[in-house]
Amino acid sequence: MFFGASADIPLEGNEKILQDEPDVQCRNQPQIFRGMEYPPGTKYDLEYADLDALDISRLDTLEGKQELAAKVSSFVSKNAFFYVKGHGLTGDRIKRQYSIARELFNLPLEEKLHYLANTRAGDFRGYKPRSTGELGARDNDERYNIPKLTPEHGRLRPQLIHDHLEEIKDFSLHIHDQILVPLLQLFAYIPEIDEDYFVSRHRYEAKGLEYLSYMQYLPRTEAEDAAVNNICPRGHADYNALTFLFHQPVSDLQVQTPDGWKYVKSFEDTIIVNVADALEFWSRGYLKSTVHRVIRPPPDQADKPRLSLIYFARPEADIELAPVQSPLLQRLGLQSSTEDVPRGVTAEEWARARIAKDHRFRTGVVQKGEGEIIAGVQEKFYD
Ligand SMILES: O=C(O)CCC(=O)C(=O)O
Ligand SMILES: [Fe+2]
């Protein structure tokens, strides 16, 4: 059965969502994985951030947990990315995801538009094209976001995705169960709260907008990039809980550090992870939502399309982003601070507000920003 062909899908957002996951026959097509190789690294000498690495295979023992918790405590205030090693995903499994992404983006635009995400309404599930013409300056990536594979998100998908749905689900579940869960337990050590406090708010089966994201940036001319100071997307913090960026060797990701913007080096056996808004709000700003941006790659990497594979782990839809009761925050006097926390706002409302704002900027409805995101919290700009 081919789900991509119906002509009556509105272009302004794919709202035609199936309530139940269709009984999909998985027909793996190994030939699509032919020749998936990473592009070479840059020869340019760039200034990279010095980031810590956590070997999460060590979390099996109490000793390992204590060691890693101490390490996390020492770097959380640095507002930085960190690396995760020992995550249990083979290079081959990651490359297969990149292959699916590549095949997907190679589909005709007309077909991809059948699965358009309704970003205007704050819904990022499905396809987002890159903008063209003048708006291309602020939006140079196309994306396809695959939400949790639960009945809530049963929806129209390209045949290619149906063909690999089991593999995509296994991959997503591995990230959720084997990487996210132990890290959330580890992060609960910091505010000295129950080990399962964060985990119990990220149940895979529960309602929520967590997703695996395929992205492609297309090369632009020097002049096009120069018009946006070589930055696109501009500096931002992510609006989920933890973000997992899989290896890709093009040097274009930068993190904001106390010493300015630094490149983030990617290694084949590690995942780059950043703390995002939910953990910042829950911890009253003790954990920092990492500020990062993407800039034009160095000359030896700037002329080719670039794929990104990212998993955005997000709290369940109805979870409030209210500060946790924490002995650490009490001691530090942060428990009752009134800093920028969206009061009474759920994870889904926060994500939808950020996505809808971004939609308005990308599509030229507004030129820079609009001030408030939701519940009095203001937009921040970093470039
Ligand atoms: O493509 C990347 O490396 C990062 C993209 C990003 O920051 C995002 O999608 O939030
Ligand atoms: Fe980001």
Automatic annotation (TrEMBL):
Database matches in SUPFAM superfamilies: Clavaminate synthase-like
One Pfam family named in its UniProt record: 2OG-FeII_Oxy
Stored InterPro entries: DIOX_N, IPNS-like_FE2OG_OXY, IPNS-like_sf, Iron_ascorbate_oxido_reductase, Oxoglu/Fe-dep_dioxygenase_dom
Keywords: Iron, Metal-binding, Oxidoreductase
GO biological process annotation, one example: small molecule biosynthetic process
Gene3D superfamilies for this protein: B-lactam Antibiotic, Isopenicillin N Synthase, Chain (2.60.120.330)
Record domain Fe2OG dioxygenase: where: 208-315
Any one GO molecular function term: oxidoreductase activity
Family as reported in the entry's similarity comment: Belongs to the iron/ascorbate-dependent oxidoreductase family.
PANTHER family: 2-OXOGLUTARATE (2OG) AND FE(II)-DEPENDENT OXYGENASE SUPERFAMILY PROTEIN-RELATED
The protein's name: Fe2OG dioxygenase domain-containing protein
Classification of source organism: Eukaryota, Fungi, Dikarya, Ascomycota, Pezizomycotina
